[in-house]
Amino acid sequence: MPDMTAPSVPASLRTWFVIHFILDIVFAVPLFLFPHATLALFGWPAIDPLATRLVAAALFGIGIESLLGRHASAESFKNFLNLKIIWSGSATLGILAAIIWNGYAAVPAAWLLLIVFFAFNLLWVYYRVRLGASRQLAPPGTGA
Q: In b/e form, how buried is each residue of 78-114, taking b as 16+ CB within 10 angstroms?
């Protein structure tokens, strides 16, 4: 019998996971295959193909798991939302630091990325709060 106290996953969150997959893949493929050409289109001043491909790999991983996990349980969504919150939050802070201290204030794409990552962070935090706090399970044999 299903646990009636377990939170359900809103259909809108499942939809956002699919949208996130699409956006991640749309950006990951060109960044991975053509890092110089892709970043040059956005006026990026310094291009490191290794770092660019690492970002693309993160986008592939998070995006593909978003699609694969879109039908998961609420507990699985909570865990994945934690990852998305950490990723988008640290990306937001990293982009902001580059804008402030590394001369990226004049790069419009940096501001766009800042807005996108911050918006996704707010979205993921909203849904994480909506799903509620995770139950803390004690390891087996601890008596807790």
A: bebbeebbebbbebbeebeebbeeeebeebeebeebb
Task: Let me know the angle formed at the C-alpha of 108 by 102 and 113, rounded to the nearest 5 degrees.
Answer: 80
CB 23 within 8 A of CB 30: no
How many domains does the chain fold into?
Answer: 1
H/E stretch holding 71 reads none
32 in a domain, yes or no?
yes
Which range marks the domain in which residue 104 is found?
A: 11-131
Nearest Cα to Cα of residue 62 among 17, 123, 29: 17
SS3 call for 44: coil
Model pLDDT for residues 17-58, shown as the tens digit of each residue: 999 999 999 999 999 999 999 999 999 988 999 999 999 999
pTM above 0.90, yes or no: no
Question: Are 134 and 14 a contacting pair, CB within 8 Å?
Answer: no
H helices present in 44-107, as ranges: 49-68, 74-101
User: How many angstroms separate the CA atoms of 72 and 49, rounded?
Assistant: 34
Cβ count near 4 (within 10 Å): 6
